[in-house]
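Practice problem: predict the structure.
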Amino acid sequence: MTAKQLPKDPYNIIITGVGGQGNVMASRVFSNMLVQKGYYVTIGETFGSSQRGGSVMSHMRVSSLSAWSPQVPKGRADVVVTLEPIEAIRVLAGYGNPAVKVLTNTRAIYPAGVIAGKLSYPTLDEIKEALKKLSARAWFIDATDEAVKLGNSILGNIIMIGALSAVGDLPVGRDDFTQALSRSLPAEKMADNLKAFDLGVEMMKQ
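Answer:
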């Protein structure tokens, strides 16, 4: 299959969250969607103290021409997807640029220092204002809240994949998601995952 030309080649995606949110799984599913379309996709991952809720970051470099090194260069992200809102600010500080787009889940996961009262955590409104200043376009997705309504909070990562597909820079959609997921997921779990993907797409339209 001949891949369509990208708006930028390579197109650099960072998906990040904290341990246990499933962003590694999300990056693998989304990369499989792109590989099915004929793109080269290189993935690199960095892990903080993921067992203790540390940062987990997946770099995805997408090209219609060739494979690239697995790490997005500093200041060169095209889109950043975060499953935890403060992670968006942290990632944009290193990888952002005036043209970057950002999608973030709105549900905070407070580190131990915040829970213990030793550190402060900005309000969601403060995070939104910061992200609007740090990006060309920012979307705020209530992914965890909607995933809980579906019966499983981990589906927040699938909602974010749906939202990412709806940005429109990459030619992937529901059929590609279905095909990619069906290779690794039991049939009885497909329905909820498809609902989650569709929710992400719909929330971007809103």
